Amino acid sequence: MLLEDKVIVITGGTGSLGKVLTRRILSNEFGCPKKIIIFSRDEAKQHFMRIEYEKFRNATDEIIYRNFERLLEFRIGDIRDYHSVCSVLKGADMVINAAALKQVPSCEYFTYEAVRTNIIGAENIVLAIRENNPNVETVVGVSTDKACKPVNVMGLSKALQERIFISANITVPATRFICVRYGNVLASRGSVIPLFREQILRGGPVTVTTNEMTRFLLPLERAVETIFAALKTANPGEIYIPKVPAARIADVARALIGNRKIEIVFTGIRPGEKVHEILVSEEEAWRTFDRGEYYIITSMLPELAKKESGWQALNKEYSSANSLMTFQETKQLLKRHRLMINQKLQAERELLP
After folding, report:
1. In a domain, 323, yes or no
2. What pLDDT is recorded for position 219?
3. What whole-number distance in Å separates Cα of residue 219 and Cα of residue 209?
4. pLDDT digits (tens, 9 = 90+) for 284-312
5. Is there a contact between 16 and 45 (Cβ–Cβ < 8 Å)?
6. By 3-state DSSP, what share of the chain in percent is helix, strand and coil, each rounded to 5?
7. Catalytic residue ranges
8. What's the CATH number where 118 sits?
9. What is the per-residue pLDDT across 186-231, written as a single tens digit (0 to 9) for each?
10. How many domains does the structure of the chain reveal?
């Protein structure tokens, strides 16, 4: 099976994606792994994730002891530090790189910090495998729609991360480097839904950038499914993109407000933001193919280019402006995932001091 007896490293594993990904791996639906290593630099988040894991196991023993003997192992470290990355990748079979600086305004103000995490961190993974552990089978880079036609530092750094991983297939041919790219994850840390909910709880106003702004929306489970789909079938250098709906952010705010008498205030676009996001650009469309629930972008590098017999390439970009839900459809999407959103928001609130 896909993950049977594998040592899996999840960088940035204490984030929203890492937690759901870990839970899915622990379900053993893809085989029983030998070890899952959560690699991050925040000891507090690791502690809370340990507690969640113990609840999952219904265990009552002291959670901090025998860390290195457990199926789920926690490692303090920083993807920016080459020696730290070398240490955690020793003996690894798979790496899922979810470590990132992803807040658009923060990356604009602290540009080199984004470079260190999103670019140098990716290069550290490639170098660590090339120089120390050529037995790593697969590396998955988790990217974002902001990497497509990037106009902000976060997107630029993620676009370069994609290129670093894709080109690594040539310099480290024994390892398969692939990427996934998707839009806003519902209720993930730092996304608009938690912000809107907090503003609503305070009685408003709810702040929205512009009435025209659109974003792709997908539940966290769909993001995780995209990673598993790529792990199962992606060729070296490919980028997997889920087919997902998009919505006007103003409609999301109105749906969450409901019948409450709360004002929406339009504040203008923040530094580095786009009005619409793009998952596949016009330039990428000619080498992008439809594989059922996903679009697959093949590499532009001739050494990795793989012709898709029988598959039709896209003939236009895949933009959030072109696949918009109506207000009612947006409402239904949020209603469908209400339980997951509420659980996620409650978990985030419990972490506050």
Report:
1. no
2. 87
3. 22
4. 999 999 988 999 999 999 999 876 666 67
5. no
6. 40, 20, 40
7. 146
8. 3.40.50.720
9. 766 667 888 888 899 899 899 999 999 999 988 889 999 999 999 9
10. 1
Residue 263 in any domain: the answer is no
Dihedral of CA 318/158/171/41: which sign?
negative
Sign of CA dihedral 262, 267, 270, 275: positive
Is residue 261 included in any domain, yes or no? no
CA atoms of 341 and 262, how far apart (whole Å): 21
Note whether 11 and 122 are within 8 A (CB): no
Residue 16 phi/psi, 5° resolution? -55, -50
Closest CA to 245 of 315, 333, 331: 333
Instruction: Determine the structural domain holding residue 77 and report its residue range.
Output: 7-184+219-243+278-317
Closest to 350 (Cα-Cα) out of 98, 22, 51, 100: 51
Residue with tokens 């709880």, as numbered in its chain: 201
Q: What angle do CA 8, 138, 306 make, to 5 degrees?
A: 155
What token pair was written down for 341? 């959103």
Q: Has this prediction a pTM greater than 0.85?
A: yes
Taking only the tens place, the pLDDT of each residue in 5-37 is 999 999 999 998 999 999 999 999 999 999 999
Q: Are 340 and 309 a contacting pair, CB within 8 Å? A: no
Specify the amino acid at residue 204: G
Rounded distance, CA 130 to CA 146, Å?
28
Determine if the peptide bond prior to 205 is cis (ω within 30°): yes
Say if residues 341 and 186 touch (Cβ distance below 8 Å).
yes
Distance CA 255, CA 34 (A): 44
Whether the CA torsion 339, 13, 193, 52 is positive or negative: it is positive
Beta bridge partners of 242: 294
